[in-house]
Amino acid sequence: MCCGGVMNEGYISKSVSLKYLRYWFAYSKTMKAPGYCYSKIYRKGEKETVFYELKSVMALKSHWEELKGTHLRDLLANEARNKRQTIQLDSLFFDYTHQRLNDQTLELFKLLADEVHLWDKVDAMFSGKVINKSENRSVLHVALRAGKEKKIEVGGKNVVSEVHEVLEKVFEFATKVREGKFVGHSGKRLTNFVVIGIGGSYLGVDFVYEAIRHHEECKKASRGLQLKFIPNVDPVDFARVTEDLDPEETLFIVNSKTFTTAETMLNARTCRNWLFEKYSPKIKSVEEVKKKIVACHMCAVSTSLDKTDDFGIERDKVFPFWDWVGGRFSVWSAIGVLPLALAFGCEVVKQFLAGGENIDDHFARTREPEKNVPAMLGVIGFYNTFIQEMESRAILPYSQCLHRFVPHIQQVSMESNGKDVSIDGIPLRYPTGPVIFGEP
Question: Which pick of 121, 134, 158, 212 has the fewest CB atoms within 10 Å?
Answer without folding.
Answer: 134
